[in-house]
């Protein structure tokens, strides 16, 4: 740590949507010193001339982007680079950073065939990364290499994990995940005219978050579920809504389901269960989570069927906010430090 006791932090890929959001949060973190921000595209430029969201922050004045190879010694390096870029940087970066928390997808999977299909560049690095969802594991205090979940994957896990962990769900589940435009990053070629006022399929099959969901749910049940996972593009800047459909095991009651969710999230400051939803306004929705680090979850049961719904801000709880949450847990800070609990409305 720095002499004044602050955690020295580097953000790699600080000019992308996730990196910029992480910078915005860390500027208000009382125990963090932003030591290094990388951007190959904007090297040498002041961050206030590129990141509109922080240009009026006093701590951002005079801070400039630096090239990736210029990273100095830090306590934590956050990887917000495009998927596939970080692995080649790890030999040098691991000598300069005490801990690496990757927000991109490189080290989320453990099955070699799935890694080859979705993240082949990560096979060049042998040391394992621990997959971290803060609500589902002990704080990774002693771990050097951490990888956070994908935004649509973690939204799905918040919706489904209590059912599977308690042994209440059948082995097959259908999931549709709807995401805003920022989920594609800030270098897409899609014209705004094609997205505004539109709602369409993104990937009916083959999304790389699907094996991540199967892996995470299989770890708590001992048997991977049969998952059908499709994604859709929303005409919004940010936010994800996941809806999961399946059958309960024979004899499981609605009360057992309610208890499973209450138990799973009883002590989680950022996952809120909407109990006994009756009308549309009772279910998770974008207006109640976007701008916050909160994920809302609800489940509705009829006979042996269930519909589980979760919503969150993909750039906050799905990425940068979860990264700060993990930092807080690793260093023993208040888990909610520098993270917003309220949404932005209207």
Automatic annotation (TrEMBL):
Similarity annotation: Belongs to the NAGSA dehydrogenase family. Type 1 subfamily.
InterPro entries in the cross-refs: AGPR, AGPR_dimerisation_dom, AGPR_type-1, NAD(P)-bd_dom_sf, Semialdehyde_DH_NAD-bd
UniProt KW Cell membrane keyword: no
PANTHER family: N-ACETYL-GAMMA-GLUTAMYL-PHOSPHATE REDUCTASE, CHLOROPLASTIC-RELATED (PTHR32338:SF10), N-ACETYL-GAMMA-GLUTAMYL-PHOSPHATE REDUCTASE, CHLOROPLASTIC-RELATED-RELATED (PTHR32338)
Role this protein plays: Catalyzes the NADPH-dependent reduction of N-acetyl-5-glutamyl phosphate to yield N-acetyl-L-glutamate 5-semialdehyde.
Classification via HAMAP family: ArgC_type1
Alphabetized CDD domains for the sequence: AGPR_1_N
Subcellular location: Cytoplasm
Keyword field contains RNA-binding: no
Keywords noted in UniProt: Amino-acid biosynthesis, Arginine biosynthesis, Cytoplasm, NADP, Oxidoreductase
Pathway: Amino-acid biosynthesis; L-arginine biosynthesis; N(2)-acetyl-L-ornithine from L-glutamate: step 3/4
Organism: Actinoallomurus spadix
EC nos: 1.2.1.38
Catalytic activity: N-acetyl-L-glutamate 5-semialdehyde + phosphate + NADP(+) = N-acetyl-L-glutamyl 5-phosphate + NADPH + H(+)
Domain Semialdehyde dehydrogenase NAD-binding: 8-144
Name listed for the protein in its UniProt record: N-acetyl-gamma-glutamyl-phosphate reductase
Classification via Pfam families: Semialdhyde_dh, Semialdhyde_dhC_1
